[in-house]
From TrEMBL:
Species annotation: Ferirhizobium litorale
Native organism taxonomy: Bacteria, Pseudomonadati, Pseudomonadota, Alphaproteobacteria, Hyphomicrobiales
GO cellular component, one term: plasma membrane
Cellular compartment(s): Cell membrane
An example molecular function term from Gene Ontology annotations: transmembrane transporter activity
Membrane topology: Multi-pass membrane protein
SUPFAM superfamilies for this protein: Multidrug resistance efflux transporter EmrE (SSF103481)
Pfam families: Multi_Drug_Res
Protein name as it appears in the record: Guanidinium exporter
TM annotation in the entry: 33-50, 57-78, 84-103
Family: Belongs to the drug/metabolite transporter (DMT) superfamily. Small multidrug resistance (SMR) (TC 2.A.7.1) family. Gdx/SugE subfamily.
Main location as per UniProt: membrane
Keyword Cell inner membrane found: no
Keyword list, A-Z: Cell membrane, Membrane, Transmembrane, Transmembrane helix, Transport
Length: 104
């Protein structure tokens, strides 16, 4: 169950990271409320997950999910470059997340 909570926390981290772009400096109320809600929910779920998972592993997986998802959505939604080097770096992060999951 802790891994499911951690995965959901990572998805919410993606939501708030991408949401920051749409708040336009916290001047748009709806995106700002959704972003803030995602921030709080993400940290709460992370807190619940670390009750049983090692802190270092959980935090690294949480930020890794957030990083990978945010970069991929940046490429898909915002037209950020999808260079071979960027995609290679993302695959290294995914490999690190998988390794941490397997050793926890």
């Amino acid at each position: 169950m802790a891994w499911i909570l951690l995965f959901l926390a990572g998805l919410l981290e993606i939501g708030w990271a991408v949401g920051l772009k749409y708040t336009e400096g916290f001047t748009r109320p709806i995106p700002t409320i959704l972003t803030a809600g995602s921030m709080v929910a993400s940290v709460v779920l992370l807190g619940l997950a670390v009750r049983t998972l090692p802190l270092g592993t959980a935090y690294a997986v949480w930020t890794g999910i957030g990083t990978v998802g945010t970069v991929l959505l940046g490429i898909w939604l915002l037209g950020e470059p999808a260079t071979a080097v960027r995609l290679l770096c993302i695959s290294l992060i995914v490999g690190g997340i998988a390794g941490l999951k397997l050793t926890a």
